[in-house]
């Protein structure tokens, strides 16, 4: 899963002589485990491009990955025989912004609000298909919460990422997604798909007209897909610190923040972005999601 696609980062050496001039002396590869054009790719490009302008340190930090709640927590709960340990074989580098999930449908779905949508889904369960980025992905976690919170169920269609999935939603090849804001919001604004609610306690500052799931009559359906950067185990601590500093600086950049917040993403604090804090957060998320995912009784095909 982690080897699907990559984004090459060329980092220009900065003036920090302490770590010598050797790192980085060649492009750093940022692995994006989902299809191009989707939410994870969007974050990788916006943050990665800005990071490219900062790093300078000792060697070996040439492969990093941008992943999220689904790939780095839920997958570890769903898939019993992963050939790597999500907590042991990867080094947390920096926590990145998080994406609240939106309940969105194609424009052909005859429902004007979430209550009508749920009634429609219950009456047409065999006619409706929902798109996800596969088992354990953010959009799949969203479906689990949506089904549990509404008592609905419908056919799931897996895609390589929600980038291609949302194109099929626009074309009404599928009818519903519980999708990361940064992927769906531009299409909602363009009137190509319809949004019913944001699966969060607060409305999104980027979309104040979209009610929360609680306001729409379905309290408790709240899922936010946090994202982060990881490096392989054994990556020297000073390189992790260097990459973290580049990510923290990138998220302090007003233009980077504007682009991500305009897509409905929520920013972590510099303290939350620190490797140790991120590691503790990931472990707490494992403890939180394990009973939820096990209760959902997800069958791995
Ligand atoms: C993507 O970039 O396609 C996503 O992160 C997919 C997902 O997890 O739903």
Task: Give a verbal description of the structure.
There is one protein chain. Helices cover 38% and strands 20% of the residues. The chain has helices at residues 39-51, 69-78, 114-123, 138-150, 162-170, 181-189, 237-252, 254-262, 270-273, 275-296, and strands at residues 5-9, 28-32, 63-68, 90-106, 129-132, 155-158, 176-180, 193-198, 224-232. It starts with a strand and ends in a 5-residue tail after the last helix. Mean pLDDT is 89; it is low at 1-19.
Describe the secondary structure blueprint for this structure.
Elements: E1 5-9, E2 28-32, H1 39-51, E3 63-68, H2 69-78, E4 90-106, H3 114-123, E5 129-132, H4 138-150, E6 155-158, H5 162-170, E7 176-180, H6 181-189, E8 193-198, E9 224-232, H7 237-252, H8 254-262, H9 270-273, H10 275-296
Parallel strand pairs: 2-3, 5-6
Antiparallel strand pairs: 1-2, 3-9, 4-7, 4-8, 4-9
Helix pairs in contact: 1-7, 2-10
């Amino acid at each position: 899963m982690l080897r699907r696609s990559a984004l090459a980062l060329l980092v220009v050496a900065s003036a920090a002589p302490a770590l010598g001039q050797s790192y980085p002396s060649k492009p750093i590869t940022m692995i994006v485990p989902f299809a191009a054009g989707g939410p994870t790719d969007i974050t990788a490009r916006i943050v990665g491009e800005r990071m490219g302008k900062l790093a300078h340190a000792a060697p070996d930090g040439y492969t990093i990955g941008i992943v999220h709640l689904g790939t780095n927590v839920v997958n570890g709960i769903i898939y019993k025989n992963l050939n790597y340990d999500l907590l042991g074989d990867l080094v947390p580098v920096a926590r990145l912004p998080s994406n609240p999930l939106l309940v969105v449908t194609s424009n052909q779905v005859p429902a004007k609000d979430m209550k009508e949508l749920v009634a429609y889904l219950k009456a047409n369960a065999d006619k409706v298909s929902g798109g996800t980025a596969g088992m354990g992905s953010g959009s799949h976690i969203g479906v689990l919460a949506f089904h549990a919170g509404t008592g609905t169920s419908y056919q799931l269609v897996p895609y390589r990422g929600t980038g291609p999935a949302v194109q099929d939603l626009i074309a009404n090849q599928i009818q519903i997604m519980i999708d990361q804001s940064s992927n769906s919001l531009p299409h909602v604004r363009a009137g190509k798909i319809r949004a019913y609610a944001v699966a969060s306690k607060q409305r999104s500052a980027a979309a104040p007209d979209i009610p929360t799931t609680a306001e729409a009559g379905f309290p408790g359906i709240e899922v936010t897909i946090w994202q982060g950067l990881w490096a392989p185990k054994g990556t020297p601590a000073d390189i992790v610190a260097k990459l973290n500093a580049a990510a923290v600086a990138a998220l302090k950049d007003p233009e980077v923040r504007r682009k991500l917040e305009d897509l409905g993403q929520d920013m972590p604090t510099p303290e939350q972005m620190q490797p140790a804090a991120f590691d503790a957060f990931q472990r707490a998320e494992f403890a939180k999601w394990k009973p939820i995912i096990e209760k959902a009784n997800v069958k791995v095909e």
